[in-house]
């Protein structure tokens, strides 16, 4: 090592860097990890600050790594970033980035050896190898046709004076674009001998011992040069270097959680992992409940969709109170940006769902309005105690059609497509074709008033709940009963909701979940009679989903079908809640206190909390 130290002192900085580069190119993972560990304590903030003072002509830059970026983030969070001396980090992606080291100004034009065309050569001649006991075979891997890129270090020289002191040292003007190629050909003989031993004769232990001694004999410029190479070797961004299309193909196999982690790796990865193509595919794998804009950012759509369920589970919402009816509000429904409510005051009011502004009042029923449903954005159906069902044109505010057939008050109606089912105090449910204003079937069989109706997603099964304590299922095509389920021994069935083969109904304080005619689960938390329920099945095979219920206790409860206790309880009304409307984003409730409340769950998340 004494001989090596003596030789190193005679080599130029460029020759040392070329020699170091060759060592690194032929080092195994063991040596790379060893050097990385040894140099970590050296190349720190104080090193950068001191060396910039000692060598002002060289741009020492810390290497940007995941750890340094994490430290910077933590310092920014605790607002201590400005307390530290900082310099911009170098982001190393390719070999060329490592070689861009700026050296001191040249003293003479011919300071470096001239460029030479690479030719095939051996480190030692044939006789020398024999005399030293080397294998006499020529190492063809060192020939120029295989090493022109691997055995040269192109070093970009910044010859522009950084200050007056360095400017006075420059006797010649050299273009900034000039480059000097220092190849293995120009290395001293001792360096070539060391390289040959390092490559072919030494074990990992011997290499590490040599490298440790070598590092001690280097000045800060060479240490910085080695650290840049090590950073590149340790943290080479293979995905970032790929063509975008190929990189996206690789990232498409990651899960959503893995994609979010990938976004934190680097700016390049953030750009790739946030690609609209990737997130559109992720959105297609799930059911999207939030509104999708005309030009969607699919990552934000996916995020908002996840936040929506979080908001429901954690009761994060914005509520709006609608005041305008003069008597009890009996029913509520929503469509797009409109809310329609019916009241015992014989009127229907249309509201703006975002502002709560009253847009329109419909009059025409001679008694209270007990149920409303949108047919289209501009057509509304309503059922009344005056025994009629009316269709309203919201553009004109006038009745366009009237459905006659029930002999007593119309208590409920359900609409899917052009199929409408209505229930009445006359103990009958009726099936209508709304498009033709045609009565298709009269469903008779209940012995008391029909309080609630629903139907399957394909409209093939009609479900009715009545005061005779039963729930009946009907075939849409024939109008004949399929099944009768006796739910309660003593109380009327006030409300029912059907979803994917399951239905939930309520009598008195009890809510029952059924699959077919079998009770799956009961829910008991309301303190007074349950008036309205809504069932949403998300996984029919496993019986997973959600339930919303409201009652005369003025409370709205949100349940998971797999848990006995409610997830959230919403309050705000002063009297009984008569009806609720539930979709993926909104919950609306109509109350006997003459008000309507709209609960919007599509609200932002406070990320700091």
Describe the protein in words:
Pfam families: F-box-like (PF12937), WD40 (PF00400). The chain has 609 residues and is of the alpha+beta class. It folds into three domains: 2-236, no CATH class; 242-312, Monooxygenase, CATH 1.20.1280; 383-597, Methylamine Dehydrogenase, Chain H. Helices cover 28% and strands 30% of the residues. It has 18 helices and 30 strands. The strands form eight sheets. Strands 3-30-29-28 form a four-stranded antiparallel sheet, with no helix packed on it. A four-stranded antiparallel sheet has the order 4-5-6-7, with no helix packed on it. The two termini are 59 Å apart.
What order do the strands of the largest sheet run in, or round the barrel if closed?
3-30-29-28
Q: Total number of β-strand segments?
A: 30
Task: Identify the overall geometry.
Answer: elongated
Q: Which structural category fits the helices and strands? A: alpha+beta
Number of helical segments? 18
Q: What low-confidence regions span 5 or more consecutive residues with pLDDT below 50?
A: 101-182
Share in β-strands = 25-35%
Q: What would you report as the Rg, rounded to the nearest angstrom?
A: 40 Å
Q: How much helix is in the residues?
A: 25-40%
Query: Roughly how many Å apart are the termini?
Result: 59 Å
pLDDT averaged over residues:
79
- Major sheet attributes: 4 strands, antiparallel
Number of domains: 3
Biased composition (Basic and acidic residues): 159-168
InterPro entries: F-box-like_dom_sf (IPR036047), F-box_dom (IPR001810), WD40/YVTN_repeat-like_dom_sf (IPR015943), WD40_PAC1 (IPR020472), WD40_repeat_CS (IPR019775), WD40_repeat_dom_sf (IPR036322), WD40_rpt (IPR001680)
GO cellular component, one term: transferase complex
Keywords: Repeat, WD repeat
